[in-house]
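Ticket opened by: R.M.
Priority: normal
Category: complex prediction / small molecule

The reporter submitted a protein together with flavin-adenine dinucleotide and asked that the result be attached to this ticket for the collaborator who will pick it up next week. Submitted input follows.
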Amino acid sequence: MRIVVCVKQTVAGEINPFDACAYEAALQIPGAEVILLSMGPEKSKDFLLNLTRLGAKEAYLLCDKAFAGADTLATAYALSLAVKKLKPNLVICGRQTVDGDTAQTGPALSVVAGLSLITNVMEIKQYEGQLTCLTRAMGEQTVDYPALITVERINHLRLPSIRSKRGEVIVWGVGDIGADVSRCGLKGSPTKVLASFQNEDGKRKCKLVDASMLDSLIAEGLQKEKQRIAPKNPEGNKLRNVWIVGEKCRAMAETISDDIRVIDKATAEVEGAAFARKFAAKIQEEKPEVVLWDSDPWSKWAAPQVAAILKTGLCADCTALETDGERLYMYRPAFSGNIIAKIACTTNPQMATVRTMAEGVSDVICAIGKGVKDAKAMVEDYALKKNWETAASRLAVDSEMFPYEKQVGMTGKTVSPPVYIAVGISGAVHHIAGMKQSGTVIAINPDKKAPIFDYADYGIVATAEEVFGS
Ligand SMILES: Cc1cc2nc3c(=O)[nH]c(=O)nc-3n(C[C@H](O)[C@H](O)[C@H](O)COP(=O)(O)OP(=O)(O)OC[C@H]3O[C@@H](n4cnc5c(N)ncnc54)[C@H](O)[C@@H]3O)c2cc1C
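Result attached by the on-call engineer:
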């Protein structure tokens, strides 16, 4: 089996954590010929060379001025030309990069390169003949080769042995892959960042309270509007029409248009792999101005495919929408939520996924950190009685208190419930990235100096045992 693994070097110079899992997954397939593929600056050459010590004999770096400033569609286009040249049976990508944070490149690449697709892979179950994978939220899926999968944080990348040899890094420019420069880099990117500013959203004024107030604070949080929808357009201009895939984005859609058409998501889901092409054809025929999707795994699987078929821009995880009556302006957190970017889409239809709560999920999430290790059963029992959903920090997952599916944060899932209770969580930026859009945040931690209190509305300075013990 010939496998291309897409890897990106993060701003910090390391391999993107999800891509590390993609590489390890490929190396674990017996007899596989593993090839690394990256698009990046010249300095990524050394990064790739080091990675070849783990098993890939060849690495390809797409490096050319024309590739700079690419959004997910332009990235997928350049990568697709390299993939077509390398002719693998399988392409493995990480679920998303931790800096771009969109989870769009993999699905878009599958469309442009003509590969079947499985996203959010937790386990490769079978790879002979056909490919069967267990996914995080869409059960077990089987597809034909050639295929592309995106993987979750499912393993740990091996370390090189002392005797391991380096492979070869081949640099390809625009000419080597026969790319049309008008579809590459900034020029070929239909989404444009218009402005970016510091996101103060995550930081909150924390009021320290007594543990006895917990129930009333939760009740107060639930009273507040469930979906926090930011700026409605000040002049009252609205777009002609907006399509929404599923009811969840209605409230956001109503801020930008009075004419909203709902595409039935249950029917769409049943259509499976055929959905993207069918829906893209419908959009081409009826030409809605805007199409909005929610941010669940199915939408993240479908929306980038539809955008890639239509060669239109897709903005991920928008927290607010605005319009001047003609264009849509989308706001989204970037770089772990420290920056808010204002983005416009220069093509039609303008598309975005918007942050919403997942279907059927509790209104209260009780997230448990490593600090609760000894009181885990006590907090879980309490949560069960109250009908709260539980979640976890990465250290709680790494120390096997919880499965990965429960992990909230930069390398886990993003949640935005009306009420988020963080118990025994220190408040690292990586964790905050996944919960800062929540409604009321209540932190419980005996360490008064824990950063989590900077991101909470209410703080209870106490141990989990003191709050939840009877
Ligand atoms: C690239 C990268 C990606 C990452 N992605 C994520 C991610 O997606 N999600 C994530 O969560 N982290 C992520 N991390 C890890 C993150 O940086 C932190 O290490 C992690 O969030 C800390 O977990 P924690 O708060 O549970 O543990 P700790 O930092 O160990 O904090 C435990 C807390 O528990 C408190 N405590 C102790 N005893 C008790 C008690 N009895 N009752 C109540 N509280 C108590 C302590 O005061 C402490 O504040 C990532 C890191 C990197 C480098």
